[in-house]
Amino acid sequence: MPTGVALRDVREQLFGAAERILLRDGPSALTSRAVTTEAGCAKGVLHRHFADFDAFLAELVLDRAGRMDAQAATLRDFAGNGTVVGNLAETLTELFGSVAVAIVALVTFRDELRARLRETWPVGVPILTEAVTMIVAYLAAERDLGRIAADAEVDVLAPTLIGAGHLLFADRKGAPPEPEAVEKVVTTVIAGVLRPPSS
Fold first, then answer.
1. Could you read off the pLDDT of 116-128 as tens digits, one per residue?
2. How many CB atoms lie within 10 A of CB 26?
3. How close are the terminal C-alpha atoms of the chain, in Å?
4. DSSP labels for the chain?
5. What region holds the HTH tetR-type domain (predicted)?
6. Fold matches, 7-49 and 66-190
7. Residue 8: what pLDDT?
8. Which CATH number is 66-190 given?
9. pTM of the model
10. How does residue 198 score in pLDDT terms, banded at 50, 70 and 90?
11. Other Cβ atoms closer than 10 A to 155
């Protein structure tokens, strides 16, 4: 790797390599040597920018959790458009079709990583807690628009959707669920609070 490469570029190169390994081989294959080999750089590069490998992994998880802000804004903008079921099914597919499932597996797999994350993320699992917050905001917006019931418990519905979605997509090696399967889960979870479209 050439000297003088900006820290952000090095971080992104290493984060991208870690994501590819996670998606391809799972959390057990993720080592500092595997990351630097995948990134095409010397092993020392990772340790020049991060205190140790778990510090690197914690930064990766927090960086990817922080990127969910843009997805949350997009979902909020969908409120009142399309169908509630369709919007939620698409969101779950995008969320769990990405590296999110692999990152959740990584956090579960590594005790030291969980301990590091607790220093800045005291409750819940990054990615999943951000996803719950995103869906709560969306459902609240749809409730304000009258597309779901005024008494809908969005704080309960959101984690239920995330949990059900995670189970659907959890098999990293299998084929992703069909769109109809995702819509069926969403419909089942929110059927009691959906309001018919106004004519």
1. 888 776 666 777 8
2. 15
3. 61
4. --TT--HHHHHHHHHHHHHHHHHHH-GGG--HHHHHHHHTS-HHHHHHHSSSHHHHHHHHHHHHHHTHHHHHHHHHHHTTSS-HHHHHHHHHHHHHTTTHHHHHHHHHH-HHHHHHHHHH--SS-TTHHHHHHHHHHHHHHHHHTTSB-TT--HHHHHHHHHHHHHHHH--TTSPPPPHHHHHHHHHHHHTTTB-PPP-
5. 8-68
6. no
7. 55
8. 1.10.357
9. 0.79
10. low
11. 11
Amino acid at 1: M
Token duo for residue 80: 């009142």
Q: Selecting from 3.10.20.30, 1.10.10.60, 3.20.20.80, 3.40.50.300, what CATH number does the domain 7-49 have?
A: 1.10.10.60
Quote the Cα angle for 142-144-145, to 5°.
Answer: 65
**CA–CA separation, 69 and 71 (whole Å):** 5
142-181 pLDDT tens trace? 999 999 999 999 999 999 999 999 888 876 566 788 999 9
How would you class 74 by CB atoms within 10 Å of its CB: exposed for 0-12, middle for 13-18, buried for 19 or more?
Answer: middle
Q: What single letter denotes the amino acid at residue 38?
A: E
Instruction: Provide the pLDDT confidence category of residue 90 given band limits of 50, 70 and 90.
Output: very high
Q: Where are the domains of the chain?
A: 7-49, 66-190
Nearest to 36 by CA among 21, 14, 56, 57: 14
